[in-house]
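Most newcomers find our protein records easier to grasp once they have seen one. There is nothing in a record beyond a sequence line and a structure line. Getting from the letters to the tokens is the skill we practise here. An example says more than a description, so a record of this kind follows:
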Amino acid sequence: MSSKKITSRRRIQYRIRKKVKGTTERPRLSVFRSNKEIYCQVIDDLNGNTLAAASSREKTVDQSQNKTQQAQQVGQLLAERALEKNITTVVFDRGGYLYHGRVKALADGAREKGLIF
């Protein structure tokens, strides 16, 4: 990636993180998207703990599907893991990426399984 693209995304990330804070009652759902994979985790920022995590590299995610469909499966998987730990509401941190494509598919998949944003 070009350095301009990286610094631009960092600026957007900081702008989002000023407003979005994860608490114990309502943790932050953070998304990282690389060219090949997508990763997400539910984070309690007050204690600095990761409460649940999922990625497209896991065996339960179908690798024969396209990346958008994989992202939706990752969102569903994360929602299931969060609900097991009695986490029902989260704040969504798109990580400086546009809310479009794989990031949107991940959010929709998490909403399908019952996670509230």
